[in-house]
Amino acid sequence: MSVPVYARDRVYHPDVQDHTCSLGKGGCFTTVERYFANDSRAVVAVKKMPKHKLDYIDLFLNEIKALNDAKRFGVPRVVKYIEAARSKDDVCLVLE
């Protein structure tokens, strides 16, 4: 899986399409991008945050790979909501 390039408060990838959206739990995110990994769709929502917190995205992209591996072994649908450990309003990832 390719590693995205970080620029300011956004995550970029060649296969990403930009969108804007509000997600549940009162979270309104400024950037929502579709990330395609192993033919499975994942929606990555990133709110403006300090640059050092973008490191969390690496962990989330690893989760994409792990969940896609699980699908290959018979899990038909996986939906997962992940929050950043230090500030739940900063970043989240929804997989489906």
The number of distinct β-strands equals 7
Give the number of helices.
Answer: 1
Rg estimate, integer Å: 13 Å
Helix content: 10-25%
Widest sheet: strand order?
3-4-5-7-6
Order of SSEs: EEEEEHEE
What is the count of structural domains? 1
Instruction: Please indicate the percent range of residues in DSSP E strands (runs of 2 or more).
Output: 35-45%
Poorly predicted spans: 1-51, 74-96
How does the major sheet shape up?
A: 5 strands, antiparallel
The computed structural class is: alpha+beta
Mean pLDDT: 42
Shape descriptor reads: globular
State the assembly state of the protein chains: single chain
Distance between the termini: 18 Å
Description:
By secondary structure, this protein is α+β, with helices and mostly antiparallel strands. It has one domain (5-95). Helix content is 19%, strand content 42%. A five-stranded antiparallel sheet has the order 3-4-5-7-6, with helices on one face. A two-stranded antiparallel sheet has the order 1-2. A hairpin with a 3-residue loop joins strand 3 (17-23) and strand 4. It starts with a strand and ends with a strand. Residues 1-51 and 74-96 have low confidence and may be disordered.
Give me a quick take on this structure.
By secondary structure, the protein is an alpha+beta fold. The chain contains one helix and seven strands, in the order E-E-E-E-E-H-E-E. It has one helix at 55-72; strands at 5-7, 10-12, 17-23, 27-37, 40-46, 80-83, 91-95.
Properties at a glance:
96 residues, alpha+beta, 5-stranded antiparallel sheet, two-stranded antiparallel ribbon, 7 strands, globular, disordered N terminus, disordered C terminus
